[in-house]
Amino acid sequence: MSHLGRIPVVRVRRALKSAGSNSKIIELESSARTASDAAAGLNCELGSIVKSLVFCIGDFAVMALIAGDRLCDQTELNVVFKRRGTPRRADAKLVQEVTGFSIGGVAPIGLISSLPITIDKSLGRFQKVYAAAGHPHCVFESTLLELTQMTNAIVSEKIAHSLR
Fold it and tell me: Which CATH code is given to the segment(s) 7-162?
């Protein structure tokens, strides 16, 4: 059974079209719930996978788009978003409430509410990057520039550091 007709995936497809993107949603045979799973399913480098992570700074929800081979430096989120408080990962319920997506398929576009977004500049190492498209079996291809434009994200070289 195809996942392409699911409401969250359709929302992402509409957001791509509305942004003028030529990107198509790719349906994977296996789950892309994690960056490693997505990289294996796409036969691409781990770093080219975009992790869409939702955090709270106080009661303020934000999103960080991080390369698959890097970790988010949560302390830098305060600087990027000019907020005080300790950033913490949002739980599954809050992620669903603010994005309209379930963890494992959180897309950076097609969100049901407006979130401030920052994006890891290191994604620019890749000609193509892949982001979740509303379901754990669906992704779309993009570039750092296109994702930045579609999300109105703040590009930062400080929000992520190497896994090693």
Answer: 3.90.960.10
